[in-house]
Amino acid sequence: MMQLSDFRNFALWISFLTGFTMASYSEDQCSWRGSGLSQAVKNVEQVWLRCVEGSVEWLYPAGALRLTLSPRLPWSSMGPGESSRSLVSACIKPDQHWGGAQLYVERDGVLEILVGDETSEPSSPAHVRCFSAIPGERPALFLQATPHQDISRRIAAFRYELRGDWTAQPSVNTDPIGSEGACRPCNNTEILMAVCTSDFVVRGNIRSVDADSNLKAAVIKVSATRVYRQKFALFPESGRLMRLGEIRTPLQCGVRPGAGSFLFTGRVHFGEAWLGCAPRYKDFLKVYEQAKQSLMIPCTLVND
């Protein structure tokens, strides 16, 4: 028969386990916002994020959070045309005022740091960090508060994205948009697939190209004469015949203004357009018509 003292110890153990495994959801299950003021310092709160993109905001960090990235969609469907062996990229973009915690990626019980605290990493932490995951694997993030003597306001906030169509290395690296191969010209097959799978497909002209030294990117200012598809309002209507927008590409690609009309395709990365394939429009039409005639076209595009 269980003694009273044994029962109390058992109840305390169950209470600890309940506090550790409690699920925490946001209203839309894509984002989470909470405060360490209501959290026990020694507790690890469990958070499940069910979307391929969202945000986390932890006010006055205390204790720790374990965030499991578990989107509703199967990993194999997150990148059109991806094989089952393709790596999945998970990217984190810390807020520029990040502080009060350190962020790790947890895999097989091993923690690998993604973002350090502002006190130990005084340089701007706002750069994107990425890591890879095997299809079917559920990556987890471990957010650990760091002790501070002062009571000043600290916020550990970041945005996350999960995609299956970016090139990622098996370990933590920088933004995959700027990875090796980003400057390589697209072949005909890649151009046709880009029209089908890109977040934006736009016909337009290059107005200017500016350098963003902080992002190590070239900002291409585009006058769009035709918007076939866009995720978010990248090229908003302004009451003019042309829509204006910006597309980014790694600075090392050496993009310069060029005359003529181009077909711009690419991905939206944390709300910004990043360039994929960008053939001259007349060259694209030749490839497109040849593929259509040979019945080798992956999808159709409404032409002028």
What would you say about this model in short?
This protein has helices at residues 4-21, 188-197, 281-293, and strands spanning 23-24, 32-35, 44-49, 53-59, 64-69, 88-94, 101-107, 110-115, 129-133, 140-145, 155-163, 200-212, 217-230, 243-250, 262-269, 272-275. By secondary structure, the chain is mainly beta. The protein is elongated, with a radius of gyration of 23 Å.
How would you describe this protein?
The protein is mainly beta. Helices cover 13% and strands 37% of the residues. The chain contains three helices and 16 strands. The strands form three sheets. A six-stranded mixed sheet has the order 1-3-5-10-7-8. Strand 7 (101-107) and strand 8 form a beta hairpin.
Fraction in helix: 10-25%
Number of helices: 3
Q: H/E order of the elements?
A: HEEEEEEEEEEEHEEEEEH
Note poorly predicted spans.
1-25, 74-85, 119-125, 166-171
Helix/strand/pairing class, anyone?
mainly beta
The biggest beta sheet is recorded as: 6 strands, mixed
- The average pLDDT value, as a whole number, equals 76
Which descriptor suits the 3D outline?
elongated
Distance between the termini: 84 Å
Our estimate of the beta-strand percent is 35-45%
Strand order of the largest sheet: 1-3-5-10-7-8
- For the CA atoms, what is the radius of gyration? 23 Å
Number of strands: 16
